[in-house]
Amino acid sequence: AAELARVAARAAGDLLAPPAPVRLGDVVPAPERVVPDPTADFLLPADAAIRVSADPAALAVGEQLAALLRPATGYPLPVTDAPRPEPAGGIALALGDDDLGPEGYRLDVTAAGVRVGAATAAGLFHGVQTLRQLLPAAVESATQVAERWVLPGGSITDRPRFGYRGAMLDVARHFFPVEDVLRVVDHLARYKLNHLHLHLTDDQGWRIAVDSWPRLATVGGVGEVGGGPGGYYTRADYRRIVAYAAERHITVVPEIDLPGHTNSALVAYPELAPHGIAPARYTGTEVGFSYVDPASERTYDFVSDVLAEVAALTPGPWLHIGGDEAFKVKGEAYTGFVERVQRIVAGLGKTVVGWHQIAPAGHADGRVLQWWGTNGDDPATAEAVRRGARLVLSPGNHAYLDMKYAPDTPIGHDWAGLIDVRRAYDWDPGAHLAGVPAEAVLGVEAPLWTESVTSRAEIEFMLFPRLPACAELGWSPRTGHDWAGFRERLAAQGARWAAAGIHYHRSVEVPWP
Ligand code: TNX
């Protein structure tokens, strides 16, 4: 009889309110706190409205939410403002929940609708990314789908563990058009990453227009690994990327790699080359052979002019000066060069970021080292931290998106090992480096070098599913870190990527449905 009653109840439940296909906790990155209420699932009605606090940035998030939901649902989803927005059978995005920090949000799903509350538009934006994941995967479709748009009932309270959560795209080894970069921005936003580092210059190409040194782009921008045409971003292109990222609460970190990785600049301006001799264009993949002459004053004119223009185009606080693999500039020539460039950056009102090779150079206020080592016992970096440096962690053997997943991965490197999803997930940014306290860690970044990556599809293949793993390390509380749970949640993302037309690697470690 009890069994019969259960079957009957289930049948009645199926008729009245079939359970949401997604559970409230099925979110990547995992939220700080999830309290499901299975009695409070919400079916988004066709006439739902989006009500938003009367604030331009919040209204922009409301429009972004509507733009996300309209194609698949086919619903009009009008966006209106209100002094104290309530769900009223739809979705409310409310500012004024001031206890959640600069990026936190709370999300409540009840029979009355969905309410996202935050202190900032960035918080609302992150809440919207969660809301999106709570709807059936078909919500990612670009065309209308017949579906019951149910959200699971309950409450989420969420905020990030680290303030810096990023990914890097190398647009120098292969050049990618603006549209591809914007698509990468979308991928970052989906997983609550908030920094896009653009590796804009390298031996194979200079990818940003500089008015005071025009040949950098027009001559230095020609070519790429393998001999393709290359290209560069005009100032308008770059501004478009920066603005598109800013609308998604993502800060662009531009990198001008110095003093090595500069062959393309030397091709454009041989006067910068040691002995003034123009090198040949380079389309290979070796590193460490090129450098601007640290003993020449002309070098510092070049660096000052370039960094000033890039700084002026970049609203974010960071300027990345590279500093890696300058094998031919050694000892005091190297540290002296870095210290002088650090002063140039400070003079432009920006905070310097550099690969961790700059550690031995003197401290500059607030400077950030991006650590890409593979052995967490790094006394030089720990010493730089003691002198005041902060860190962004990109361990080569966990966070490098250009490493192969497995021996048969068709593209990618393996110098830092093979990185399948578990390896990408199983490390702790707060405790990775010996002698470095968690407080010195600003966060994480997953770099994609593109020696072997030539298209948007290949970018996505290397990002998915590892980028979400890095995103979770940057966002979610360490107490919830759990590979078994993560792989299940990640598996459920696959249907979303498929619906969104995102290429991804079907890692054998993940139980894709
Ligand atoms: C090392 S990581 C580099 C890059 C290469 C990458 C390939 C770093 C700061 N420098 O120049 O593209 O390895 O994995």
Q: What's a concise summary of this model?
A:
The chain is an alpha/beta fold and 513 residues long. Helix content is 33%, strand content 17%.
Structure explained in plain terms:
It is a single chain. The protein has helices at residues 2-16, 56-73, 121-134, 178-190, 215-218, 235-247, 263-268, 297-313, 331-347, 379-386, 396-399, 421-425, 456-463, 466-475, 483-500, and strands spanning 33-36, 42-43, 50-53, 79-82, 91-95, 105-110, 113-118, 150-151, 154-158, 164-170, 195-199, 201-202, 205-206, 251-258, 318-322, 351-355, 368-371, 390-393, 441-448. It is of the alpha/beta class and 513 residues long. It has 2 domains: 2-158, Chitobiase, domain 2 (2-Layer Sandwich), CATH 3.30.379; 164-478, TIM Barrel (Alpha-Beta Barrel). It has an 8-stranded parallel beta barrel, surrounded by 7 helices. It is elongated and about 75 Å long. Bound molecules: ligand TNX.
